[in-house]
Amino acid sequence: MSTLWIVLGLCVVFVLSAAIRLLRNSDPGRNPPLPRKETLHDWRNDR
Predict the structure, then answer these.
(1) Is residue 32 included in any domain, yes or no?
(2) HSE on the CB side for 14, CA within 13 Å?
(3) Number of folded domains in the chain?
(4) Which residues contact 7 (CB under 8 A, 6 or more apart)?
(5) Three-state SS sequence of the chain
(6) Does 11 reside within a domain?
(7) CA angle 36, 42, 44 (to 5 degrees)
(8) Could you give the maximum distance between any two Cα atoms of the chain, in Å?
(9) CA atoms within 13 A on the CB side of 46
(10) Predicted TM-score (pTM) of this structure
(11) What's the pLDDT tens digit per position in 16-31?
(12) How far apart are CA 26 and CA 24, in angstroms?
């Protein structure tokens, strides 16, 4: 039973750390998105 609690605790810590990281990076004024690079496919579609 104690092994179950350890595994459950590790899962909760993993999910919370991922959620906090995603919420912290959602500030729109901090980092504007990078412009999309032109590709060879874009050049072919210009015709």
Answers:
(1) no
(2) 6
(3) 1
(4) none
(5) CHHHHHHHHHHHHHHHHHHHHHHHCCCCCCCCCCCCCCCHHHHHHCC
(6) yes
(7) 170
(8) 66
(9) 6
(10) 0.48
(11) 998 888 877 666 566 6
(12) 6
